């Protein structure tokens, strides 16, 4: 289990574009995720910023299926047509 402060600071990347994607996801969507998806998010936070940037800008997709699932969830909930769970 990852504590909230560690999760918050792990989601703050120092790259504005990533912060604008990850922080709303963390605040609005992460609490609603199943445990397996939360673990995938933790794994995502271990990735390099440039990889995450390419994934969220839809320039590339992760090869790892777990990462692909969480990247897809982030894309669906943080873009212009975001659909946040109620």
What does this 3D model show about the protein?
The protein has five helices and no strands. 63% of the residues lie in helices and 0% in strands. The mean pLDDT is 90. By secondary structure, it is mainly alpha-helical.
CATH class: Mainly Alpha
Number of strands: 0
Structural class: mainly alpha
Radius of gyration: 12 Å
Instruction: Report the CATH topology name.
Output: DNA polymerase, domain 1
Let me know the CATH homologous superfamily. Answer: Flavinator of succinate dehydrogenase
- The overall pLDDT average reads 90
SSE string, helices as H and strands as E: HHHHH
CATH architecture term: Orthogonal Bundle
Estimate the strand proportion: under 5%
How is the main sheet built? Answer: none
- In whole angstroms, how far apart are the ends? 24 Å
Whole-number tally of structural domains: 1
Low-confidence stretches: none
What is the percent of helical residues?
A: 55-70%
Quick one: overall form? globular
Number of helices: 5
